[in-house]
Amino acid sequence: MNITIITPAPPGSRAGNRATAERWKQLLEAAGHRTNLVTEYHGEPCDLFIALHAWRSHEPVVRFRKQHPDTPLIVVLTGTDIYDHQHRFPAVTHESMTLADCLVGLHHRVSLDIPERFTSKLMTVFQSADKPAKAADPKKGFDICVIGHLRDEKDPLRAALAARQLPGTSIIHVINAGKAHTPEWEHKARTEQQANPRFEWLGEIDKPAIHQLMKRCRAMVISSVMEGGANVVSEACRAGLPVIASDISGNIGLLGDDYPGYFPVGDDTELAILLQRAEQSPDFLGVLESRVNHLASRFTPQSEQASILAAIERAVAGRAGLNP
């Protein structure tokens, strides 16, 4: 098939939507499809159209459906679509969802978080990650990583605030890797780094540096207030890195309802308790490691590719059913 993928994130961006689009392009081409990755759409024909972001891609989705009424359409729901835009801009977001032949969610609980009328065409695609090489040397100290851009949705300094509450005997050190989306967030990160000896902000780093950071850390904190299915969870699971996560739907939908490493979203006191438990209890840390290792197989490129191809089949069948 000749497939067009549209994402609002431009080339060179390290936004999650761009990474997803580029990874899907590679997986689809490996499966024998031709793909065209764009940030703007001018009506060009294709055999299948995939739009990342229901709200941000609304205009090209409407244009595509108007100009190509018989061609299958997939809309991928992002975290801001599900937990923000469908509430603030319901008409626009829901129109994109209505026009789609198949909706893709990136975690298992999306069906609970969108209107019931859309769930019949919803499929789950877990984002994949490569399996990094294991660290050659034993880990020293007790470093905790937070990987993600500094913006409101990520609540990126929650682990730093939790670290302030740890006892003086703790050796926990929180390392944050991510680009500040605004000058205000850069100021917050630098101010926290100056005031908090347990916190270090690296800024934006490349993928090899992220893998090296994960190798040296004992656990990863994902403190987001909203997520559509963070790829960093996939990376942690594939690396066998224990995850301590906020109890939002996007994290639970990846790690499972009974995962033992959740803390209430926005609660740095409860997060501090979990961090201290991870540091003091090898058994607890071992349970978290065992759980992420068990989950790792769902985040392989092969699994993601199979799920994308299944979503394409659903979209093709759905469009054919409307045009017998």
Task: Give an overview in words.
With 324 residues, the protein is an alpha/beta fold. It contains 13 helices and twelve strands. The chain has helices spanning 16-30, 58-67, 79-88, 90-99, 110-113, 158-163, 183-195, 207-216, 231-239, 249-255, 268-280, 282-295, 301-322, and strands at residues 2-6, 34-38, 48-52, 73-76, 102-105, 122-124, 142-147, 172-177, 199-203, 219-222, 243-246, 262-263. Strands 2-1-3-4-5-6 form a six-stranded parallel beta sheet, with helices on both faces. It has a six-stranded parallel beta sheet with strand order 9-8-7-10-11-12, with helices on both faces. It starts with a strand and ends with a helix.
List the uncertain runs: none
Q: What order do the SSEs take from the amino end to the carboxyl end, as H and E?
A: EHEEHEHHEHEEHEHEHEHEHEHHH
> How far is the N terminus from the C terminus?
20 Å
- Helix/sheet category: alpha/beta
User: What integer value in Å does the Rg equal?
Assistant: 20 Å
- The average pLDDT is 93
Helix-strand layout with pairing:
Elements: E1 2-6, H1 16-30, E2 34-38, E3 48-52, H2 58-67, E4 73-76, H3 79-88, H4 90-99, E5 102-105, H5 110-113, E6 122-124, E7 142-147, H6 158-163, E8 172-177, H7 183-195, E9 199-203, H8 207-216, E10 219-222, H9 231-239, E11 243-246, H10 249-255, E12 262-263, H11 268-280, H12 282-295, H13 301-322
Parallel strand pairs: 1-2, 1-3, 3-4, 4-5, 5-6, 7-8, 7-10, 8-9, 10-11, 11-12
Helix pairs in contact: 2-4, 3-4, 9-12, 11-12
